[in-house]
């Protein structure tokens, strides 16, 4: 593996850092998350038009840039530094790969170009707090009816023979950007008990019976919504008779890519939290000297620097080998949690105030681990898949 960045990748990172440095400071972030959309629409369009950010990993034939998922992950390290509130994760990391993998030719041609251009955003709706399971990050997505199996619960789908389509009913909470995305990608259970399976459906924002409400969240930079589907007309993603196993595999593959993107965001946020803390301890004085000159503070920051750099190395490795995405995500989330905690501690009394900028990083760390973790489950599932704790075969008896 060659971890060196190309000139194009370095240019994307430099330009993105320059734009976000001017338009995405802490005050701008706080203002953007309180808008109806939950993000700065003007900044989103600028990133789409100037950098093609939402279309980085979309094939050129569909109007995208045609880069590898690694390029998207590297760009997201910069968005993580600024804690950019945007539909990038929900649209480019979750929905675009699923539409690319499962959609028909007509669906890909109709949806991918506007998604790549940033004019259309999308959200993945998974019933209950099961997003990490659906993406096979913390457990096997083939085990258990996470989409709402049985006769009730979750989201149910039934074929509407007279209309030639499908109808959905049920509820999904904690849907990232679900309150504002014009396109919803809904995971629903169908087939009843005998033919139980999970399929994905496309739902438009103007569909009758669709009710969306924005939820109050710990991390406002990741707006979430509750989606209610009251006999809503929907379009099956893919061909009729879609293979449920193929849907679950596509979700797992999307989870691997999304884990790399999330890990890159987390390590970018951790690095920025560390940088802001180092800057503060250099100029904050106690007892006539900068607090950063005290040996205890130096040791804490040195340990934190090692942890952040180790997480960054894991993220770069996973960017080229997405199979390691879950482990990189665990490492990055842990580094972000530690960096945010130390930032609050070392900022002293002002750092403990809820309104201080350090808490933006703390909230991101806590919310991401609740949505996509926790860390110990990410590692445990990766260990199970690698067979690290599989009992060895019984040794042969040795004659004495």
From TrEMBL:
Its cofactor is FAD. CDD domains: ACAD. Keywords: FAD, Flavoprotein, Oxidoreductase. The keyword RNA-binding does not apply. Residues 6-118 form the Acyl-CoA dehydrogenase/oxidase N-terminal domain. GO terms for molecular function: acyl-CoA dehydrogenase activity; flavin adenine dinucleotide binding. The keyword Metal-binding does not apply. Gene3D superfamilies: Acyl-CoA dehydrogenase/oxidase, N-terminal domain, Butyryl-CoA Dehydrogenase, subunit A, domain 2, Butyryl-CoA Dehydrogenase, subunit A, domain 3. Residues 261-385 form the Acyl-CoA dehydrogenase/oxidase C-terminal domain. InterPro entries: Acyl-CoA_Oxase/DH_mid-dom_sf, AcylCo_DH-like_C, AcylCo_DH/oxidase_C, AcylCoA_DH/ox_N, AcylCoA_DH/ox_N_sf, AcylCoA_DH/oxidase_NM_dom_sf. Belongs to the acyl-CoA dehydrogenase family. This is Acyl-CoA dehydrogenase. The lineage of its organism: Bacteria, Bacillati, Actinomycetota, Actinomycetes, Kitasatosporales.
